[in-house]
Design goal:
Elements lengths: L1 E5 L3 H12 L3 E5 L3 H8 L10 H10 L3 E4 L2 H6 L3 E4 L14 H13 L4 E5 L7 H12 L6 E5 L9 H6 L4 E4 L3 H10 L7 E4 L1 H32 L3 H9 L20 H14 L5 H13 L2 H9 L7 E5 L14 H11 L3 E5 L4 H8 L4 E2 L3 H5 L4 E4 L4 H4 L3 H7 L4 E4 L6 H6 L3 E3 L8
Helix pairs in contact: 1-3, 5-6, 9-11, 9-12, 11-12
Bound molecules: nicotinamide-adenine-dinucleotide.
Amino acid sequence: MKLSVFGTGYVGLVSGACFAELGHEVICVDIDEEKIEGLRNGVMPIYEDGLKEIVDRNYANGNLKFTTLPAEGVTESDIIFIAVGTPSDNEGGADLSAVEAVVESIAENINDYKIVVDKSTVPVGTGDWVEEMIEEQKEADYEFDVVSCPEFLREGTAVDDTMNPDRVVIGTESEKAAEVMDELHQDFEAPILHTDRYSAEIIKYAANAFLATKISFINEIANICERTGGNVQEVAKGIGSDHRISDKFLRAGVGFGGACFPKDTKAIVSTAAEHGYDFKIVDSTVEVNEAQKKTLVNKLRQEMSDLEDKKIAVLGLSFKPNTDDMREAPSRTVVKQLLDDGAEVKAYDPVAMEEAEKIFGDSIEYSEDAYDAIDDTEAVILVTEWDEFQNLDLDRVKELLNNSLFIDGRNCYEPEKMKEQGFTYYSVGRKAIN
Ligand code: NAD
């Protein structure tokens, strides 16, 4: 089949590359010339395991093309995917300006029947709006259908998630479009769920809001454990072994971040408010998460009353391991709190250093590795649970630290072991060792 994908970010590039790998002809369109030029030369704009191999292979065999020309994407494809960003607007809703720009290009260049598939996360009713815009603006009288096909991939495992999805949601009332979409997804061993377009649009927000709520829930249980005794990991195991609950997304930590949960939770609260409904649970999920991101530095302040001119090591900057994405990363709150308190920050992340530099500039020091970051500092704050931070040589850490203070935002170490090693050790939802 002939497809185009507008937006070559995490969703667009990975989906486009995977469809090409399955034998379809895919044109990826982006307004970012540097990104497109890079992709033509084998430079990936994001870090995702296995992505480069697939992109290189399919670019070489001609299944995958890259362009900055929207007209090319529209005219040379039968199915047009919209996979551009939908960041938060000033009121917490979704900013649809990039979607609008793509839709205008489709209307301007429509040259045959097209299926317009929205993969971007957009508020319920956006499909109607897209349909009306194309209908009003189209410059040639061709038919088209608008389908909602939300994306559920996770950064860090995006290629695998795309190739092996839990389900594919196809939201449309057009039988013709549904048939084509079924055929397009026939190589995936995943159940296909057919819904109306509104339901498909809501499914995406409901899924993210639910998962985010699970995280905030266990973080609140952790906060209770810290005050009452009890170990949140044992509590999580105890409740997670109930199949109705499941043990996924029950890891207490420093809060959620990334390109999706923060904006999608705010957006569904905002959509609800626009329709006169106060979505209290998800509103609280957001509030709890904001507070959770601050708990690590609050623990540090408990031990060190004055952080002025103190050097603090921050391990892990990306919002989760195996990605360089720093959008809404909890590390941003941690670093800001430290700098506001006058501390000097030495940071290290295995892949997000370049992204971090764009955000923090020269306000922090960038280290060569974890040990270089820890050297000559007063305390370590572990923010992102990269594998290499879960197996640190603790003797060496102890030797390099001026003070033996270790704040573990992801429960990577066992309190008893840290006690034996002589650390003052704080984690999340477990007894502090001090
Ligand atoms: P991204 O920011 O990584 O990429 C978006 C891309 O769109 C950028 O390369 C940008 O240059 C391009 N773009 C902007 N305007 C354009 C235009 N008019 N024409 C062509 N390209 C244009 O975004 P992302 O993380 O891939 O997310 C895309 C959508 O998918 C969002 O709605 C997001 O909520 C949703 N989503 C993201 C994830 C994720 O894990 N990142 C998962 C599921 C769903």
